[in-house]
Amino acid sequence: MSQKYAAFDGTSGQILAFFDDSINSPEQIASQKTIPITDDQWQACIDSPIPYTVDVVNLVLVAPTDAVVLAAAQAAQTGQLTSACAVQIQSGFQSSALGAAYLYPLDLTSQSNMQAAVIRFGITTPTPPATINFMCADMATMTWQRRAHTSAQIMQVALEAMGYIEAVLAKKDTLTAQVAAQTTAAAVQGIAWTFP
C-alpha cells in the first residue's frame, strides 16, 4: 500500500499539495516540507470544503474548527441570499397603475428609465408631456410594449417599485440575520431564499 503525504507551507501550515509515493519520486517528496497522512486523512482533506492545515510545531494534520466551518458556511449562504435578492428585484413587479395588472421590469436600465420619467414629469419648463411611454407587460398575454403613462401613473409605478424593492431587501435582511444567528453549518445551509 502506498503512503500519502501533505506538503505544507512551513509558516502558515497551508497545505500546498499532496504526494503519493506510488506516483511521486522520493526526490519530489523530499523537496517539500511534508507530513505522512493516511488514506482516510487524504480523503477528508479532499472532501472538505474548508481546507485542512498542518500544525507546523507538532507536525500533525489539523481539521478546520467548527467555528471556521460555521463562518465559511455563513459567508457562502449570505452570498447566495444576496444573489437571489438581486435576481428577485430584477425579475420585476406587478402594478395596476394602468387600471389592470401589468408586469414592470426592474433591471438597472429600467430603474434608470423610471427615474428619468419621474424627473421629466417634475420639470415644468418646458411644459411636461401629457404621457410618457414606459415598458411593461400585460399580465394576461405577457406582451411587452411601451405603454403611455400619465404623471400620476408613473408616480404610482415608481412608488410601488420602491415598495417592492424595500420588501425584497427587508426579506434578505431577515434571512441574513437568521444565517448569522445559526450555530451550525447545517442550520445555515437550511436557510434558503423565499419571497414573499
Concise summary:
The protein has 6 helices and 9 strands; from the N terminus they run E-E-H-E-H-E-E-H-E-E-H-E-E-H-H. By secondary structure, the protein is of the alpha+beta class.
Q: What this model shows, in words?
A:
It is a single chain. The protein has 196 residues and is an alpha+beta fold. The chain folds into two domains: 4-64, no CATH class; 67-189, no CATH class. Helix content is 46%, strand content 21%. The protein has six helices and nine strands. It has helices at residues 26-30, 39-47, 66-90, 108-122, 151-181, 185-189, and strands at residues 4-8, 15-20, 34-37, 53-55, 60-62, 93-95, 102-104, 132-138, 143-149. α3 packs antiparallel against α5 and α4 packs across α5 (151-181). The mean pLDDT is 95.
Keywords:
3-stranded antiparallel β-sheet, 4-stranded antiparallel β-sheet, 9 strands, single chain, 46% helix, alpha+beta, 196 residues, 6 helices, 21% strand
DSSP, total strands: 9
How many strands, which pairing sense, and closed or not: the largest β-sheet?
4 strands, antiparallel
Strand order of the largest sheet: 6-7-8-9
Which whole number gives the mean pLDDT? Answer: 95
In angstroms, what is the radius of gyration?
A: 28 Å
* Class computed from helices, strands and strand pairing: alpha+beta
Low-confidence stretches: none
- Helical amount among residues, as a percent range? 40-55%
Strand content: 15-25%
Summed up, the domain count is 2
Estimate the global geometry from the Cα principal axes: elongated
Our measurement of the CA-to-CA distance between the termini, rounded to an integer number of angstroms, reads 56 Å
Order of SSEs? EEHEHEEHEEHEEHH
How many individual helices? Answer: 6
